[in-house]
Write a structure and sequence with these properties.
The complex is a heterodimer of chains A (about 650) and B (about 150). Chain A is α/β, with parallel strands linked by helices. Helices cover about 25% and strands about 15% of the residues of chain A. Chain A is elongated. The relative contact order of chain A is 0.04. Chain B has a domain of about 100 residues. The longest helix of chain B is centred in the first third of the chain and has 11 residues. The chains are: A alpha/beta (about 650), B mainly alpha (about 150).
């Protein structure tokens, strides 16, 4: 192997020497070590000093790029900080410029995150606070220096666990008189909008990019949408403020950003152990190997530095998530295993390991179908709960999916919920099973949505233990008492329940969505007082809409089926945007023509001889109906200004 | 392959082998331009497996890939990272040209002979090193291994 190493090194030296004839004054002191970056007009090489084997970076520019290189040298030679490179020398011959600067040992933040996953939020804030000190130094120069290309590729995570800013290629002295920059410089995903040329860049452009950097450190993503993954609300707000389109609405300088970051860092509670994405074990193995080689004296100087850096990084960043990942997981329920494999795209003949299961955040089983979205689950749960029947009898496999937050196991033969204890679920659907006792859910306090309809449960006392619960489906259960429900419920499905007393609904100030059928007098009495309700689905035994006419907030109303003989007065529900109606055939639909807000109408179950009245609904956009109805409507020969969805 | 056959009868595998037999890329493109589908890594890997008479399992082992990850790559469920592709290249003893083509298909930068680590990997590929030997060589050079 040593022969190979020597033979490679000699041929590589030849390659570099041929590619890059260096000026004599550089060759005197340095050897070429590596090419870091190369384009036709610019290249960056790593050099090794003959005297002490330390590294330096040589940047070379040809033609028009020479001007930028000179500017970079001018800026760096006027600044002194351990967190930016030091200018060493500048020389030029007739067509090439050479700029030598010090080498900052460490790993680009982009590589660090790719290799080891995002940083814990606390650590990200600490690192960016350090970077703010560097930016403060730049921005307080006279005139101020704007870096304009702050991005993970240009920031080194040093062996001392700080961030160093390199590559001042795009940096400029701010010139107050200038209206806008003449050239675009920077990098698309991390550059502030004004860097695309409509306005001059100033310190607030660097604030924009620093916001994107914070986002990247915490999430590994540049997409602003991914900020929702961030736990700390203060940090989310800081990122939002940094990245506002209008520079005037960002923090006005780095000092202001530093101040809020400091406060957010002090306020943040130590995060619960963040699951360490990526190859914790792989990293540990790499460290072990590097250490072995360091001790055996095999590694050259730079690699020893790097290895030492990696070791501490490993200690600091790898939490207790290192588990026995080498053991294949055995499932009790083949159906659940199949759904998990389906989701992961892993063939049945390949063993599954814990690391695979840790990637599963959602799992939606409905009968023998695997559904894609929670919306599909809730639609089926309410409107066709018995459409599919599966054969799963136990949830024992579910706790293996440690990062699961949304789960549906509907249309099965589940009786026991105790396996779900202590899971961090926010959405759970268990419709159409054989559940009698929902009490084990008391140890799932993270639940926000619970669909437990079509089960033989008789009480929902467990709701008292679920402080975050907002959405609850109790349809076709024997639950008769709503008093355990908190005031924070926003959505409630009570189809086919033997409820006697509806008055608990009156104290639910945020109730928006309600599903009821066979309304009793007590139900009507309560219902007519729910002034803030925005969505109501009411069916069976609805003889009059009069009691509903006080519900002025209603936007979405479905009434079915057939006993209703008049919709007179419906036009007083002025916010109604969606209406599904199934009354007796040929009722008078003319009140609809006075409803300005109505954009969607479903008349699938509403038979009429004459549909011409529909053409007089002022703002109708969508009509849902049967194909037979569609035929009749089109046969009228009137100009159709709405979309017809026939099924 | 006659021109009047419908193009959907030409599988990617068939196209790759026609490409092999063509005297030059230009000739191949002239004759088959209309048959060319968008190139795809898992198709190219299947072609290479067939060509070298290797099983997925054997390559996943030789490339020391995590098994489910390996199968996802071969089945086209995920675009592999550059290091994973290089491990596959070493595990299959691909030629430098095949390796570069694989990297290009995956939009992962091709090996650049002036970059020290890339140059070392090129050396390993040209000398048909195993993955383990390549990693030992990289370690000895103080370069990042292929994890």
């Amino acid at each position: 192997m040593t022969d190979h190493v020597l033979s490679f090194l000699s041929s590589y030296q030849d390659t570099l020497a041929q590619a890059l004839p260096l000026p004599a004054e550089i060759l005197k002191d340095y050897d070429l070590y590596d090419c870091l970056h190369e384009t036709p007009s610019k290249s960056t090489y790593l050099l090794k000093k003959k005297a002490d084997a330390t590294f330096a970076v040589l940047k070379i520019a040809k033609s028009s790029a020479r001007e930028h290189l000179r500017a970079e040298y001018d800026i760096l030679s006027s600044l002194r900080s351990t967190r930016i490179p030091q200018a060493l020398s500048y020389s030029s011959d007739h067509k090439t410029d050479y700029f030598l600067r010090s080498y900052v040992a460490g790993t680009p933040v982009s590589d660090q995150v790719e290799r080891s996953g995002a940083f814990p939020e606390q650590e990200a804030m600490r690192l960016v606070l350090g970077l703010c000190e560097t930016l403060m130094l730049l921005h307080t120069q006279s005139p101020p220096v704007i870096h304009r290309d702050i991005k993970p590729q240009n920031i080194i995570y040093t062996n001392q666990h700080t961030l160093a800013l390199i590559d001042f290629d795009a940096a400029r002295h701010f010139q107050p008189a200038q209206k806008k920059d003449t050239v675009y410089l920077g990098t698309q995903t991390t550059a502030a909008p004004e860097q695309f040329g409509y306005q001059q860049t100033d310190a607030r452009s660097d604030i924009y990019s620093t916001g994107i950097l914070l986002l990247f450190l915490c999430t590994g993503s540049y997409e602003l949408d991914s900020r929702t993954q961030i736990q700390s609300r203060a940090l989310r707000h800081i990122i939002e403020t940094c990245t506002r389109f209008d520079p005037q609405r960002r923090y006005k300088n780095i000092r202001a950003l530093s101040r809020v970051l400091n406060r957010a860092q002090a306020d943040a509670v130590p995060a619960a152990v963040t699951f360490w994405r990526g190859a914790a074990l792989g990293l540990a193995a790499g460290v072990a190997l590097s250490l072995a080689l360091v001790f055996s004296g095999l590694l050259p100087a730079r690699a020893q530095q790097d290895a030492a850096g990696t070791t501490t990084a490993g200690d600091a960043l790898v939490p207790a998530a290192v588990v026995a990942v080498d053991q294949a997981i055995v499932f009790e329920s083949p159906e659940i295993e199949r759904a998990v494999r389906d989701q992961l795209g892993i063939d049945a003949d390949v063993p599954l390991y814990q690391a695979d299961l840790d990637r599963v955040g959602k799992l939606f089983l409905f009968g023998d179908l695997v559904l894609d979205t929670w919306d599909d689950v809730t639609f089926d749960a309410i409107f066709r709960p018995s459409v599919q029947q599966g054969t799963i009898t136990t949830l024992a496999d579910i706790p293996k999916l440690r990062n699961l937050s949304e789960l549906a196991v509907c249309g099965q033969n589940i009786t026991d919920l105790s396996p779900l204890k202590d899971m961090h679920l926010s959405r759970l659907a268990l419709c159409t099973n054989l559940i009698i006792d929902p009490s084990p859910l008391s140890s799932v306090p993270s639940l926000r949505e619970l669909y437990i309809g079509h089960n033989p449960i008789t009480q929902i006392d467990v709701a008292k233990e679920l402080p975050l619960l907002q959405t609850l489906d109790l349809s076709t259960t024997n639950v008769s008492d709503l008093s355990p429900l908190s005031n924070d419920i926003t959505s409630l499905c009570l189809y086919d329940t033997p409820i006697v007393d509806y008055s608990p609904l009156l104290r639910m100030n945020t109730l928006q969505k309600l599903y009821v059928n066979h309304p009793t007098q007590a139900c009507w009495d309560t219902l007519s007082q729910l002034k803030d309700l925005t969505e109501l689905q009411i069916k069976d035994g609805v003889l009059s809409i009069q009691p509903l006419l006080g519900l002025k907030s209603l936007k979405n109303l479905a009434i079915s089926p057939v006993e209703l003989t008049s919709i007179e007065g419906i036009e007083t529900l002025t916010h109604l945007d969606y209406l599904r109606i199934a009354a007796t055939p040929d009722i008078d639909l003319s009140p609809l023509t006075k409803m300005d807000a109505l954009s969607t109408l479903d008349i699938f179950f509403q038979e009429q001889q004459d549909y011409s009245i529909l053409f007089q609904i002022p703002n109708l956009k969508h009509l849902y109906c049967s194909t037979a109805q569609k035929g009749l409507i089109e046969a009228l020969g009137l100009p159709i200004t709405f979309e017809i969805h026939a099924s | 392959m006659s021109k009047d056959k419908p193009s959907e009868t030409l599988s990617t595998t068939a196209l790759f082998s026609l490409l092999e037999k063509s005297p030059s890329l230009e000739t191949f493109l002239d004759e088959h331009e209309s048959d060319l589908p968008a190139p795809n890594i898992s198709d190219y890997l299947s072609y290479l497996l067939e060509r070298y008479q290797l099983s997925k399992q054997a390559v996943i082992r030789a490339a020391n890939l995590e098994r489910s990850n390996g199968y996802q790559i071969f089945n086209g469920y995920r675009t592999p990272r550059r290091n994973a592709l290089l491990r596959i290249a070493l595990g299959m003893h691909l030629t430098l040209e095949e390796t570069q083509y694989l990297l290009k298909l995956a939009l992962r930068g091709e090996l650049y002979p002036r970059t020290r680590r890339d140059a070392a990997i090129i050396y390993c590929i040209q000398h048909k090193f195993s993955l383990i030997d390549a990693e030992i060589m990289l370690e000895q050079l103080g370069e990042e291994i292929l994890e």
